[in-house]
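Final report, Chapter 2: Outcomes

The project's central promise was a pipeline that accepts a single protein chain and returns its three-dimensional structure in a standardized token representation, suitable for archiving and comparison. That pipeline is now operational. To close this chapter, we reproduce one record exactly as it appears in the project archive, with the input sequence first and the structure output second.
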Amino acid sequence: MRKLSTSLLIVLAFLVAPMLHAQCTAANTQTFTSSLLGSNINGSTTGFGNAMLTFNQNGIGTLTSSTLGLGNNINSLQLFAGNPASGGQMIQTFTTTNNSFQNGRFTTNLIVDPNTAAIIAQNPQNFFFVISTPQFPNGAVSGQLSSANATQFSGALTSTNVSGGGANGGAGTFALSLSPIAGTSNYMLRYDILTNGIGSNISALTLNTTANPVVIGGGPTTTGRLTGTTTITAAQAQQLLCNPSAVALTVNTPAFANGAIAGNVGTTNEIFIPAIGTVRGLFGTNFVSDLNIFDNDPSGSSANIFVQFFPSGVSNSSAQNVTSMTLGGRATASSRDVSSTLFNGQMNGLGALRLLSSSNNVFANARVYNNQVSAGLGTFGQFVPGLTRSQALTEGALVGLINTPNGGGTTNFSARTNVGFFNPSDQQTYVAAELRNSTGDVIANRIITLGPYMHLQLPMAGSGALFGDVGEVQTSTVYFVSGSPIFSYASIVDNVSGDASYVAPSSK
């Protein structure tokens, strides 16, 4: 095993020294992901791979990798430091004669040199994986590491939490995301604040840590909402990571310089609805969506829920629309046609929802249905489950899909399939997909890019589709491998009735 030179280790270890002390248990485990493409190394034009590296501060961890389009005879998986364009310096070869890729998959327990582990944590973009094959001995696919260590927080804001009293009747909700900034010891803090009853201008957002208060933002709001990013120090970040409940967020306004509303920061429970929206489709279909939420808190305590909508087809540095609600313990809320009831008709088209709550007892799903009430035909459609971040996948199969010619009459089965993906991360990733027929042959493949918090839904086959060169498709499977965990689904729509069936991915 070749390692970084001693001089380079000394220099980089010095640079990362601020990160290596005052760490709490929550921050000890580090995860890094990588999308491996042939275009990064002048290798395979159709092959793809991923890699997920996880280790603690002692360098003890795991490495997993999956591939598509590289065959079953893979030579090696290696980690390099430096610039891929110049070849870099090989750090470690993980495959061995006793532990190699099997059916395109690889996993191993590992020990990374602690100094190297610290350097990777500080500068993941300076490291890259390479997978080589007999056809491409110098590298079939390659990709740089990306940090997957964002931590989410949320909370409720009220005037009663302000010492001495704040804006009478003022309230709000907030979501925070904290992630390390590559190449520095600092952290990026993203904030999304929704307020009411305090006016249209926020003079400051203040994090009240045990050290000096930190002003993280301010400015005019748009219908009570303020979003943005700021940089905080490693010491300030550690307080959030180690003891978030000891940190409070205060919203200051010109009329309430000492605080209009405030609330404690809490770790958050996330629920994702990967497909939701209001859209008219082919053959007169009219899809709308209902959102159902249940608070299963046995104590009867209320849950404050922050709801974000990410529209399809665009990278989202922040959600397009947000709203909030409070739900009593063991209570159920159903929002009919969420575009109208939750977002005042502003949620147009398809997308994904994220629900954030400090309670881990909140469950949700959505009903996406074809509304034909005006034609006297009622409603018919599909339920979309609410999923946690841990249920996102880097590999999976959408089974039993079909795409037949449009129409077909009332006596012949005729249906179309839409395939959707959602990236629940603030980092760009890639997804490789294969279309396999009933005999297992690959009849089409494609690699797509998913920007941060990007939702994408495409027809499975036909013009402008996921597989544009394919027309009619009988019973088939879409198999995908992603550079980082994503949500995926398919929706099979009957061309005659307009009825839709939801297909969740299967995984090993």
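Archive annotation: Residues 6-16 form the longest helix (11 residues).
This record, like all others produced under the grant, will remain available to the consortium after the project formally closes.
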